[in-house]
């Protein structure tokens, strides 16, 4: 069966015309489809702004004989300029035209990647389905939940494990349907599916607090044992972790840090048991490292991987590195770790070279790149009326993984996004606070325009200027400034925390030291008090970072005098392509980065892998490059515990 995108291309080309209008109100025509049409000899332009379109059409296409496809989304073809709509035929690409047997109401909130999976399961023999039946079809095809199957407790837990391990999120309508199905089938006496399917972290807490009870009752499991009064989440007091449907996930979840090993009176009793990875003992970290290393080795994304595959892998990668920096590894383990780092760096770098430009145009429910964060928070703002965005400058996924283990007084949802390239503060952090591509920013050498960019972004979204606050102060002044913004009833607060990035640049003794310093920072800074202040004052709190960091080795320092616009350890910025090419020839272990989303005269030269433009063989912790550690950053929604 052909793919969804291939089907859409067929529909567009069906009229066999050299030029036509494509009406795409459901935004199904993505960059991949545009690329396919371009390969077939068509020029594709979007109708968004009538003045921009008219200039482009008159200067490049009218009376030229070029094959032209005009994509319009918000404006129907008949409302386009008369000379266009009267002379060109139109093709309409709707959800209904692609999925004629399914309910449009049930499809509207699905993302393109979900529609692609649905199309793979869709066939011509399918009978027309109602909205409810379409949602049941979606649950079965995308989320592997069969409404016609009778689940026992182990089956429900196994389904939730699969759902949350894959980081799949059910929309509100699907949550309601699952809850309704649970009520119809009596599942609510087994589990609170409404909560456990909705909240990933709550589900893992539910498993975690029942693991010690399972160990205590090992071999004496009672399906209907009442919940222990001390348990936070309602449900049976113990779970059948040894049921094959559940057991297959257990060691993986302990290995990846989703579940934590617990202490027992006599760990030796479990040494040869499958439960050993979940027992806190002298050997547990080594057991976990071995298993996690195996998982990571077998899950490195392929060449054709999606951005979502890399985000999913990045969490696993951060957990492996956190564990590696927390224990003493043997010579062979260190050698294996270095080898896999080199492999991951190379594969991700190659993927970024091919795919980064596409990331800048993807529309998704969750932010894909950090420039999308402000639109995402904007949707939340219209629901809550108060939002606080905290940007912890330079915080990597690795550092967040270290910090998150210590945030016991909060509930959080974990997501991640791609930083702007190059991964430097002036480029990526300004993209966060402006919601714009770096090419649209006034100054990429400093962050001095950041307060104005933040205010303009929210004014454009309907917020009054007097209700917008931007705070960038040292730790000892930060909480006072935040209290002032809260007292003045600011609706939108943007906050920069600089200390972690400053520590990264100040550490010359390795990543272990930086991770220790990160933990000390959490304990000594005002960060926890800041989060409590904002949450208890009714703000929705979002945490993110502009870039991560990586431990690199020097390959020499270019001598270009004042000719480089920016002289970082991981990236140099030039205005002159000839000068950049000259330095590249001297340092072939670097990349002349394409200016995707950047001004045309902003030309980065990025050190490859874990190399740096600094003294030969010296070790530095820095950023600006293309490693997974620098590019994919945490995006966290924080809630009161």
Q: Based on DSSP secondary structure assignment, what is the total number of beta strands? A: 17
Shape assignment: globular
Give me the side-by-side strand order of the main sheet: 6-17-9-5-8-7
Summing up helix and strand content along with how strands pair, one would put the structural category as: alpha/beta
Cα(first) to Cα(last) distance is: 48 Å
Q: Which radius of gyration do the C-alpha atoms yield?
A: 26 Å
Mean pLDDT: 90
Discrete helix count:
26
Largest sheet: 6 strands, mixed
Low-confidence stretches: 219-227
Query: How much of the sequence is in beta strands?
Result: 5-15%
Helix content: 40-55%
Q: Layout of helices and strands, plus pairs?
A:
Blueprint: H1 4-13, E1 20-23, H2 31-39, E2 43-47, H3 50-60, E3 68-72, H4 82-85, E4 90-92, H5 95-98, H6 104-107, H7 112-121, H8 131-143, H9 153-165, H10 172-185, H11 193-198, H12 200-216, H13 244-255, H14 284-298, H15 307-326, H16 331-359, H17 373-384, E5 387-392, H18 397-404, E6 410-418, H19 425-434, H20 450-459, E7 468-472, H21 475-487, E8 492-497, H22 499-506, H23 511-524, H24 527-536, E9 540-544, E10 550-554, E11 566-567, E12 571-574, H25 577-586, E13 590-592, E14 603-607, E15 611-612, E16 619-622, H26 628-631, E17 632-640
Parallel strand pairs: 1-3, 1-4, 2-3, 5-8, 5-9, 7-8, 10-15
Antiparallel strand pairs: 6-17, 9-17, 10-16, 11-12, 12-14, 13-14
Please describe the structure with a list of short key phrases separated by commas or semicolons:
641 residues, alpha/beta, 4-stranded parallel beta sheet, 26 helices, 17 strands
């Amino acid at each position: 069966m052909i793919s969804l995108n291939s089907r859409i291309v067929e529909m567009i080309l069906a009229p066999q015309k050299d030029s036509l209008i494509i009406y795409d109100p459901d935004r199904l025509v993505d960059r991949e489809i545009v690329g396919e049409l371009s390969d077939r000899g068509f020029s594709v332009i979007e109708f968004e702004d009538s003045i921009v379109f008219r200039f482009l059409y008159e200067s490049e296409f009218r009376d030229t004989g070029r094959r032209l496809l005009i994509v319009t989304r918000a404006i129907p073809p008949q409302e386009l300029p008369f000379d266009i709509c009267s002379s060109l035929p139109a093709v309409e690409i709707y959800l209904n035209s692609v999925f004629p047997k399914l309910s449009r109401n049930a499809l509207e909130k699905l993302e393109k990647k979900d529609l692609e999976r649905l199309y793979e399961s869709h066939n011509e023999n399918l009978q027309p389905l109602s909205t409810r039946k379409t949602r049941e079809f979606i649950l079965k095809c995308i989320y592997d939940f069969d409404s016609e199957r009778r689940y026992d407790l182990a089956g429900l837990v196994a389904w939730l494990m699969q759902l949350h391990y894959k980081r799949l999120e059910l929309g509100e309508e699907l949550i309601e349907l699952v809850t309704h199905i649970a009520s119809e089938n009596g599942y609510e006496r087994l589990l609170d599916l409404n909560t456990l399917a909705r909240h990933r972290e709550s589900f893992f807490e539910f498993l975690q607090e029942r693991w010690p009870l399972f160990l205590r009752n090992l071999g004496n499991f009672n399906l209907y044992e009442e919940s222990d009064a001390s348990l936070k989440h309602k449900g049976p007091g113990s779970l059948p972790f040894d049921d094959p449907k559940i057991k297959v996930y257990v060691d993986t979840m302990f290995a990846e840090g989703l579940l934590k090993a617990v202490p027992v009176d006599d760990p030796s009793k479990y040494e040869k048991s499958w439960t050993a990875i979940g027992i806190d003992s002298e050997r547990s970290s080594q057991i976990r490292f071995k298993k996690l290393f195996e998982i990571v080795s077998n899950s490195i994304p392929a060449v054709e991987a999606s951005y979502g595959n890399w985000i999913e892998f990045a969490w696993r990668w951060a957990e492996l590195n956190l564990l590696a920096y927390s224990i003493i590894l043997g010579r062979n383990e260190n050698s294996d770790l270095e080898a896999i780092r080199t492999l991951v760096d190379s594969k991700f770098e190659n993927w970024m070279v091919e795919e980064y430009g596409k990331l800048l145009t993807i529309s998704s429910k969750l932010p894909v790149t950090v420039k999308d964060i402000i639109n995402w928070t904007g949707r939340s703002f219209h629901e809550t009326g108060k939002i606080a965005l905290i940007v912890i400058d330079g915080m990597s996924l690795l550092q967040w993984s270290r910090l998150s283990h210590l945030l016991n007084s909060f509930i959080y949802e974990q997501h991640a996004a791609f930083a702007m390239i190059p991964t430097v503060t002036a480029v990526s952090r300004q993209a966060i606070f402006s919601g714009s591509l770096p090419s649209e920013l006034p100054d990429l050498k400093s962050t001095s325009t950041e307060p104005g960019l933040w205010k303009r972004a929210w004014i454009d979204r309907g917020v009054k200027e007097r209700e917008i606050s931007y705070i960038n102060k040292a730790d000892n002044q930060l909480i006072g400034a935040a209290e002032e913004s809260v007292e003045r009833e600011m609706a939108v607060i943007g906050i920069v925390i600089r200390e972690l990035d400053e520590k990264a640049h100040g550490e010359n003794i390795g990543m272990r030291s930086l991770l220790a310093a990160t933990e000390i920072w959490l304990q000594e800074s005002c960060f926890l008090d800041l989060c409590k202040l904002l949450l208890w004052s009714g703000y929705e709190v979002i945490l993110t970072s502009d870039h991560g960091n990586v431990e690199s080795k020097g390959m020499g320092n270019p001598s270009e005098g004042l000719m480089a616009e920016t002289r970082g350890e991981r990236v140099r910025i030039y205005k002159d392509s000839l000068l950049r090419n000259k330095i590249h020839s001297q340092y072939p272990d670097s990349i002349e980065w394409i200016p995707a989303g950047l001004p045309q005269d902003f030309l980065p030269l990025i050190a490859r892998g874990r190399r740096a433009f600094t003294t030969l063989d010296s070790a530095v912790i820095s950023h600006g490059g293309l490693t997974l550690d620098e590019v994919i950053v945490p995006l966290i929604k924080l809630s009161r515990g």
